[in-house]
Amino acid sequence: MKLFNVRTPYVSLAAVSLITLTLFTACNNPAAGGRDHHEHKEPFGLELVYEDTPVIRYFDREVTEQEHMHLQAGEEYVFTVQFLDEDGEPIHAEDFDESYHLGWVIQHEDVLQISPHEGAGKWSFILAGVTAGETRVQFRLMHGAGDHAHADMETPGIQADNAIEFHVDAEGRDDAAHHDEH
Question: Whole-model pTM above 0.70?
Fold first, then answer.
């Protein structure tokens, strides 16, 4: 009598593939359980807030400047990200568990640098004007850690026509000089 060996390479490969597929799709499935999944509203956009004033809004695939501000080379500015739900209403920061964090891609780091703002909450960051110029930035709501981190939401990429742009003026340059040249 011949016995079937269940431990063939094909069965093992199929089992590993099934487990891997389950793990990767669980993050995007709200019904999936697990320790790292936390019920939260899905963000559909965000606002960049400076001194309690929304400055830039990304919603419905549109980037709009809510308030024009001048960044100066040599200066630092503390911003906070406010995520928005499908109706454009704020999502509370505490609705996201510890596996979420803010990420970004900067077109020209010689013009502008971004760093987390320790102590002001995980949705706060510092923009530092380095030198006069323009640059585009893509902001991302990241989920996970290390090689398994992925973006759950992101603003248009730095090559997109509607990317978020920042303009940095030279040190000591005032707003009146900036307006006269346009």
Answer: yes
